[in-house]
Records
---
Amino acid sequence: MNLIFLGPPGAGKGTQAVRVCERLGIPQISTGDILRSAIRNQTPTGLAAKSYIDKGELVPDSVMIDIVRERLAHADCAGGFLLDGFPRTVAQAQALKGFASIDAVIDIDVSDETLVARLSGRRVCPACGGTYHVSRLAGATTCEKCGQTLVQRDDDKAETVLSRLAVYHAQTEPLIGFYTQRGLIRKIDGAQPVDDCFAAILRALGEGK
Ligand code: AMP
């Protein structure tokens, strides 16, 4: 199954993507993770992308399209894949049509108010990518899976969160119309508990019990 996870930052795309990929045995292709790894490794792409990410802006379409086209050509994508964070503009979606066919687009829907609370309280493990929320950490500051000290992503700081949401509404939300026209959108209430959201996604994909 070739899937896209759409939704604003903080909707839970990453959390749900991990679970869905595990269940379906397909790779999760998170463009945000690819870019953050490029930044850590100081590659030319990473160095170019950093200033956009730090401001909460989108990395140019041409860069993202090349990254995803190259990634989807890997053998592990032959049996399906889940795109998490791509496409984010209509231009990216148009380009994607040229090199992949999509079976379903999961649109995880959450109000802006909830997103701001989620993103500004999000803490991540820089080693394993685990994601937490301060309200559930009970004061803990390390990753329960690998013991690393948790950090706040620079782009989860309050000012950047607001610009990421504005960018989402202006540039990514139009994709809901784009994929609705193609009959691919499956809308999911992202405000429900994580397990319920997962179950709803599986049902929407015809994989639920
Ligand atoms: P994410 O982890 O998906 O929230 O992505 C973090 C940041 O990476 C975004 O705020 C953008 O700056 C950049 N980014 C990730 N995916 C894309 C994309 N498909 N197009 C443009 N920029 C992207």
---
Amino acid sequence: MPSTYRRVVLKISGDGFSREMTSGIDTAEILSVAEQAKAVAALGIELAIVVGGGNIVRGAQVEGGGIRRATADYMGMLATLINGLALQDVLESIGVETRVLTAITTEQVAEPFIRRRATRHLEKKRVVILAGGTGNPYFTTDTTAALRAVEIGADILLKATKVDGVYSADPQKDPSAKRFKKLTYLEVLNQQLGVMDYTAISLCMVHRLPILVFNLKGERAFERAVQGEDIGTLIVPE
Ligand code: UDP
């Protein structure tokens, strides 16, 4: 099947880097992400991955006891860089050429995020890992993913989650919960479906950037998602 998309952004939360119910880094988990990314890159699709940091630091949880929110958020952004570096090495260990670009400048370990540089790497079929969030406190890496996807002209934002899409209720608590195949941005916002934060959804809405929410742990899930198979929940203008 020909692939549907030319350039995509994948958002992986920090919990995709650690084993369930634990924090820190687990290389087996990272390898499973890397293998899925490798398969998608092998289709010739240009791939940028925005990494979260929640497995190490989430600003809202660290704030307090003398630590200001802005400081906690910078700590969170640095956490995303740790994940990005781990992902880079694991990807390279399986033969995928990558570059880490960061919004928090740390020139010893990664290139600064420069839009033109990011797109040039993508054209050269390098997998681009985007770390450091937006570089600003009070934002999230979901918003970063929306921002970068719009900025680099991606065709779609793929948001990896633990469940296979957006449900009417928590499927683990409510057996009658049903998966939505398609939603509009306004439905997500009005029904407070909690897919991504409002800033991220609004940005996608203004720029009509489709979002696919899917479970990266499913069998060949990422490959199937970029080939337009009916998995997850697609969020579109109408
Ligand atoms: N963060 C931030 N600005 C950004 C992106 C991230 O301040 O543009 C901080 C924020 O504290 C956040 C943390 O980095 O809690 C980790 O990112 P996020 O919570 O989005 O990670 P995820 O939940 O996806 O693992």
